[in-house]
Amino acid sequence: MASTTYTGSQPQSGARIVGGKRGEGPGPEVMAADTLEGDSVLSPTGEKLGEVKDIMIDVKSGRVAYAVLSKGGVLGIGDKLYAIPWSALTLDANRECFILDVSKERLDKAPGFDKDHWPSMADLTWATEIHSYYGQPNYWQPPPEV
To answer: What's the pLDDT tens digit per position in 97-128?
Structure first.
């Protein structure tokens, strides 16, 4: 596996993209959500953290709000799920995976849920806590001016 260095996150409204090139057809800037579902999510050191189970859209704004990361379990049974702010992810188009700048230990301590007990993702208190945990600005607010 080729080594790539990923640096800390910067405020933004979407996922960063590394690798890949524009060609015919979509991607990597615009992609069908279902082509990203099932992609592995790796730590910056290459450790597998889980995989993208769902991509959640804020219907009113038309923005991607979260990727739901699935970790553990067998065939979807016993998985722990995590809402990951979209801006916390980096798409590695060459390796067809996402990079999340957290360690496995930090992810283990993150607020999570199971498939039968989803949080109210429209609850701004919950959403603010999730974005804060991953060091990301709230997606529903305009990005700070640079």
So the answer is: 999 999 999 999 999 998 888 988 889 999 99
- pLDDT higher than 70, residue 41: yes
List, as one string, the DSSP characters of the chain: ------PPP---SS-EEES----SSS-SSS--HHHHTT-EEE-TTS-EEEEEEEEEEETTTTEEEEEEEEESSBTTBS-EEEEEEGGGEEEETTTTEEEESS-HHHHHHS--B-TTS---TT-HHHHHHHHHHTT---TTSPPPP-
Q: Are 92 and 98 in contact (CB under 8 A)?
A: yes
Tell me the C-alpha distance between 28 and 96, whole Å. 10
Query: What are the b/e assignments for 16-55, b being 16+ CB within 10 Å?
Result: beeeeeeeeeebbeeeeeeebeebebbbbeeeebbbbbbb
Provide CB contacts within 8 A for 53, sequence distance 6+: 37, 68, 69, 70, 79, 81
Q: Work out the number of other CB atoms within 10 angstroms of the CB of residue 108.
A: 14
